[in-house]
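Following up on my earlier message about flavin-adenine dinucleotide. Here are the inputs again, as you asked, copied directly from the submission form:
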Amino acid sequence: MKESRGFAVGEQALTSFDRQFSMRCRVQRPDRYRLLDALPADAPRIARGSGVSYVAASFGVDAITQDMAAFDRLLAFDGERGLLRVEAGARIGDVERFALAHGWYLPVAPGHPAATIGGCIAADVHGKNPARDGTFRAQVAALELWRDGSGVTVSPDHGSDLFADTCAGFGLTGTIVSATLRLARAPAILVVRRIPVESLAEAAQVLRDALNVPLLYGWHDGRPGAFGRGVIRIGLDTGDAAALPPSRLPDLPIAIAPSRIPTWNRLGIALANGVIRRRWCRPGQSAVTLADTLFPLNAAKPYFAGFGRAGLVEAQWLVPHTRFVAFAAGLEETVARLRPRISLISSKLFAGEPDGLAFDGHGIALALHLPAPADGAQRAFLDALTELALAHGGRPNLIKDSTLDAATVRRALPGFEAVRERLRRWDPDGHVRSELTRRIGL
Ligand SMILES: Cc1cc2nc3c(=O)[nH]c(=O)nc-3n(C[C@H](O)[C@H](O)[C@H](O)COP(=O)(O)OP(=O)(O)OC[C@H]3O[C@@H](n4cnc5c(N)ncnc54)[C@H](O)[C@@H]3O)c2cc1C
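Thanks, got it. Here's what our run produced:
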């Protein structure tokens, strides 16, 4: 650990959640506002929340990582209006725990409870039903950014350019230090209905028919022969609102130690799909507390450990409704031909307008998990998936897919160059950078 000008920079090996990129990095851990400015003005830097992005978005190249973990306080709560002001390093699991105990919740929460509020804004994440709730920006009333030695507060109505560019800005507009979040009244109990589906086309129809519910997503088998078979989970609000005990949100750890022997070979995938099908794909419904539905991956530690040291690739594409059936048919044909190992496919409905680099739009999103290494059949399949998705007007999720390169991103997002220029206005000297911004040429 090196001390200079009142700040300490240590060295640490950082690894992306998908394990596709790791490097030794210089890390600063500011614990007060003045230390946010302690780095030399021309030092390359990038803010970091918990680092639970699948891709390397909070470290890389020669940037000093500014770890915001110490900025994790809940600052103010208006229990009448459901407004909560928090520091940017606060974790979404802790925010939900606090809100639920007071009868409120944040409808848009990603699956990992350690994701921070700063990370959720900078990646403009989605939750359990983006078609109803939008992306994370929809619940941010205001945010405070640290730029050039002072704080600036922006909101959708005040400083709206900077607000919009910060959402899905991947840290380029400055360091988010706090945000005021708009909470929603928490339904205490959800009835979760399970609708089995035989194909992705059928799944799309079930998702579209459900639309306005608090929870809506599907799980699907990715194996040839059983491709697309699965279940749609639809959470219905019983109208019963109450404060919930705060102890109902166990944490998925930030760093999951990989198994020494990876589980997700063909046999492991077949066994897991069989178990899931028997347990979760029968038609019916059950009453579940909202707390249990917010972080369904809490019990998924063995699942992620099972990818072993090589990790996984998550490819997520949002395909317009009009193209989805043809896309799904092409995907099934590609899987039958190339026979990749796919450990999981999930489906979600979106109904937003894509702004900047955000993962949003009108259509159905599919996320596919593939055990790495992404070479041989796995690589061939990922390349074919990319071409197929592009041919059907698909939009990629930049915070998840580490296989996307600059050329692909430009083909997928026709307005990319304009957005890049817009973002770089806030950092004209290019000091803010990460492995993600390097890889996609942002
Ligand atoms: C198991 C799992 C499930 C997930 N589920 C979902 C899901 O359902 N929906 C979804 O959309 N995503 C999901 N994600 C992705 C995850 O929510 C996002 O990648 C999120 O950004 C991670 O937050 P973080 O605090 O770890 O951010 P980091 O990984 O640390 O950083 C992400 C980006 O935010 C920037 N950033 C972080 N903090 C700040 C700050 N204070 N100021 C400025 N910029 C900042 C970083 O520079 C970087 O560009 C999931 C990830 C995992 C591993």
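One observation from looking it over: The pocket of flavin-adenine dinucleotide is lined by residues 17, 46-54, 57-58, 68, 88, 110-112, 115-116, 118-120, 122-123, 125-126, 170-171, 175-176, 297, 399, 434 (CB under 6 Å). Hope that helps, and feel free to reply on this thread.
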